[in-house]
Structure formats: structure tokens, C-alpha cells
Amino acid sequence: MAEEQGTAEPEATQANGADNLPQVSIISQYVKDLSFENPNAPAVYQWQGQPQIDVQFNIGPQKIADDVYEVLLKIEVKATAADKTAFQVELDYAGLFGLRNVPEEQLQPFLLAEAPRILFPFARRILADAVRDGGFPPLMLEPIDFGALYMSQLQAQGEQLAQIETAGQA
Questions:
Q1: Is the pLDDT of residue 70 over 90?
Q2: FRET partner for 73 with CA separation of 20 to 30 A, picked from 88, 143, 147, 158?
């Protein structure tokens, strides 16, 4: 027992006992908007060949309250064949994340890379089910490396900034 009394408090706690270690939690995940359109039914089910699939996505973080952020993963899929739409599905899937003691320089990488990585498998399943329920084979989107996309976006922004600075010096 004497040994237990002599233990020092970890560096992660402040004098008042408050914890200052970074903490991340998923508060909730939810569908904000889901739309499925099958404008050429029932003729679409007689079409031959594979449709051309176009997938677009966007990530939108937003501060909701102190230490609470909403990350919106918007995915739009359009399948066309012979210049006609087979189906179109749009999903806005969001998550509420509690972020406490996360350094400012780590907020953007978390909100634009890690949070979408957490949300994507759930959004992918919802899209697959919606397409299947629309009478088509389930659409299984390939995994997306949000970390690599974030890094390439940072690099592109850095190059663009460098070009602006170079042009300003000329």
C-alpha cells in the first residue's frame, strides 16, 4: 500500500484532475438525405450491356458545438447506358464526432480523412441496398483512401500557393 501512495499523477492530467489527452468519440451516424431515381423503368430492365457508372463524392465538416463536429459524406452515383439514365442515387450520410483536446493542426486531417474513413463502410452499404431495392444488382463501391486524397489535396493547394507567390514576385 505504501507503494500506491507514492505514485505520481500521469502527465495527462492537470492539477485539478482534468484530462488533457486528445479524445475522439462517435456520437451518432445518420442518413440526412437519400434519393433513388429510376426514370426509365420498366424499359431499363430490358437494356443490354453494362451501364457506365459515375461516382462523385464530397466531404463537408461543420462545427456544431464546442468539441462537436458533423462530418457529411455526400455520394452521388449515376448509371447511364446509351445516353439514358439507368438509375441515379444520392446519399448524404453524416456522423457527429466529439473531439476533445485535439490539437488545432490535427482537426482538419481528422475531419477530412479519418472521419470519412469511419463513415464510408456504412454509407457504402446503404447505397448498395438502395440500388438493389431499385431492381439492380447491388452497387459495391471500391474502398476510398481518404488519407491519400487528403494528402494529394494538400499538395495541390501547396503547389497552387507557390505559383501565386511566384507570380506575385515577378
A1: yes
A2: 158
